[in-house]
């Protein structure tokens, strides 16, 4: 492994003391930061129709989600590398400030354009909070003990993903959608206060420059991927029109940028993402699982709350509550596997078990029907949650433990970056498959309906829970049935990806977990 940084001048004693109290205080700030970042990826989803309605931009609502996702994905590798080069305290504080300012600006936005700009700034902060929180834990906690800290982070991520839509619906129906953003302010201020006074991590002196060329090329590649996967939500016709030259130009630019990035990284003195990391089987298997995990799980989760609103006539808040069994399953295995890793020092079995259980959960979801009982539905997503909890943070531990302490930030950011890209690609492909099936199902279902009962322009692209609730009862039943019969088989497209993740997990080489924290290993801290 190449070392690109040096600790501060040695004075004979490590300059940083890691007491148990210090670790837990720092961890509380990291937990709050992770919660904020995860929550804001989901809290806006149920509030979107109201937000764009108030701001007069119903035809551009996809940009609110796309801007946030793009900002997060673009900055993840940069935060990871900067933390490795110069230390993580300052970038973490910067990320918190960006997130706080972006949240405040989003809450006060008076136009759609302003909201997109502030939302992008919020994403620039959120991307750093995810990466740096996990990397700082690697700095202050040994790999052997890291499971009992990563487990709660995985649980918090799962809780935030599920309660986000619930809170978004509650705010929209109650005090107003702007509280989706105001909610972040007090939590971010507390995290910022703790980090400012208690997050006293050593700084470092970089001996090489930041790989600016690699950062620019990766930004172009990531932007292309995100825009391609979001094309149907940001384009004027709400679909992929492959006769559109702009779409093909975007494909070409993305491919060229990716090739150029790989060439640049192979030649850079200190690359943004060192390609030699992929020579490690543990690293390669872990990030491959992260990619497949993102493609399958986030695609599945993005459609289940909407299914409940369609099939059961539930409100957004009720749909969020009905997703709680998944959170319970995730918390059980995230916390349990973390404690087991700390106790027994083994981590390889958990991604295998997790991907296996998740595959069963996805296959079971192919049996969704409009009249499914909530007990059966709860059991389905509980099983899915069990699988998620075993995998989510275990692969982060594996990735961090497979590299030298000087490369923990890069390894962590690569893992999360590929998971985000996987989520974008998987959700887009799943959405395309589902929408195509829905268009066919709806066409067949509406063919015999009285013309006066079908609203003008009603179809797969305009199908929302509110639109379905306004249909005549008989037609509503037909539409809901078509929706369920289009969604359930679409999960079969995710099952092979989950199976592939399950098979790949067997090839992970288990590296003995280090009993020293990253700061200890670099000789700049001691434990009390």
Automatic annotation (TrEMBL):
It is found in: Cell membrane. It comes from the Bacteria. It is a multi-pass membrane protein. InterPro entries: EmrB-like (IPR004638), MFS (IPR011701), MFS_dom (IPR020846), MFS_trans_sf (IPR036259). Residues 26-513 form the Major facilitator superfamily (MFS) profile domain. Keywords: Cell membrane, Membrane, Transmembrane, Transmembrane helix, Transport. This is MFS transporter. The chain crosses the membrane at residues 21-39, 62-80, 92-112, 124-142, 149-170, 176-199, 211-234, 246-264, 285-308, 320-342, 349-366, 372-399, 490-508. Signal peptide: none annotated. PANTHER family: COMD (PTHR23501:SF197), MAJOR FACILITATOR SUPERFAMILY (PTHR23501).
């Amino acid at each position: 492994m190449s070392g690109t940084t040096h600790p501060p001048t040695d004075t004979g004693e490590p300059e940083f003391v890691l007491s148990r109290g210090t670790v837990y205080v720092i961890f509380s700030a990291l937990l709050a930061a992770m919660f904020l970042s995860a929550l804001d990826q989901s809290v806006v989803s149920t509030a979107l129709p109201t937000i764009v309605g108030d701001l007069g931009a119903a035809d551009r609502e996809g940009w609110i989600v796309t801007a946030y996702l793009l900002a997060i994905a673009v900055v993840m590798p940069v935060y990871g590398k900067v933390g490795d080069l110069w230390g993580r305290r300052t970038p973490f504080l910067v990320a918190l400030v960006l997130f706080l300012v972006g949240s405040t600006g989003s809450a006060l936005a008076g136009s759609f354009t302003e909201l997109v700009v502030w939302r992008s700034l919020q994403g620039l902060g959120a991307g750093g909070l995810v990466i740096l929180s996990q990397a700082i834990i690697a700095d202050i906690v040994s790999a052997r003990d890291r499971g009992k800290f990563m487990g709660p982070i995985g649980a918090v991520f799962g809780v935030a993903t599920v309660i986000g839509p619930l809170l978004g619906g509650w705010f929209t129906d109650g005090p107003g959608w702007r509280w989706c953003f105001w909610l972040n302010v007090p939590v971010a201020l507390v995290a910022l206060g703790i980090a400012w006074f208690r997050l006293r991590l050593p700084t470092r002196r970089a001996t090489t420059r930041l790989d600016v060329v690699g950062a620019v090329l990766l930004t172009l590649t990531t932007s292309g991927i995100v825009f391609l996967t979001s094309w149907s939500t940001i384009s004027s016709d709400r679909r992929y029109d492959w006769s559109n030259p702009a779409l093909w130009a975007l494909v070409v630019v993305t491919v060229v940028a990716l090739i150029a990035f790989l060439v640049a990284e192979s030649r850079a003195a200190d690359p943004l993402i060192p390609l030699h990391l992929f020579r490690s089987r543990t690293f390669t298997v872990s990030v491959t699982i992260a990619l497949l995990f993102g493609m399958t799980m986030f695609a599945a989760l993005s459609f289940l709350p909407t299914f409940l609103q369609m099939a059961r006539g539930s409100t957004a808040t009720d749909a969020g509550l009905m997703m709680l069994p998944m959170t319970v399953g995730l918390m059980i295995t995230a916390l349990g596997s973390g404690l087991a890793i700390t106790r027994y020092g083994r981590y390889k079995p958990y991604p295998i078990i997790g991907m296996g259980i998740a595959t069963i959960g996805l296959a079971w979801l192919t049996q969704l029907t409009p009249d499914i009982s909530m007990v059966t539905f709860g059991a389905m997503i509980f099983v899915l949650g069990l699988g998620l909890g075993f995998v989510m943070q275990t692969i982060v531990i594996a990735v961090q433990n497979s590299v030298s302490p000087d490369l923990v930030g890069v390894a962590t950011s690569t893992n999360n970056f590929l998971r985000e890209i996987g989520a974008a690609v998987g959700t887009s492909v799943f959405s395309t498959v589902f929408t195509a099936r829905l268009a066919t199902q709806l066409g067949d279902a509406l063919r015999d309906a009285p013309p006066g009962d079908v609203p003008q322009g009603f179809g797969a692209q305009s199908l929302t829970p509110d639109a379905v609730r306004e249909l005549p009862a008989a037609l509503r039943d037909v539409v809901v049935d078509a929706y369920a019969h289009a969604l359930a088989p679409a999960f079969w497209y995710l099952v092979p990806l989950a199976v592939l993740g399950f098979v790949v997990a067997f090839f992970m080489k288990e590296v003995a977990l280090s009993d020293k924290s990253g700061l200890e290993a670099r000789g700049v801290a001691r434990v009390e």
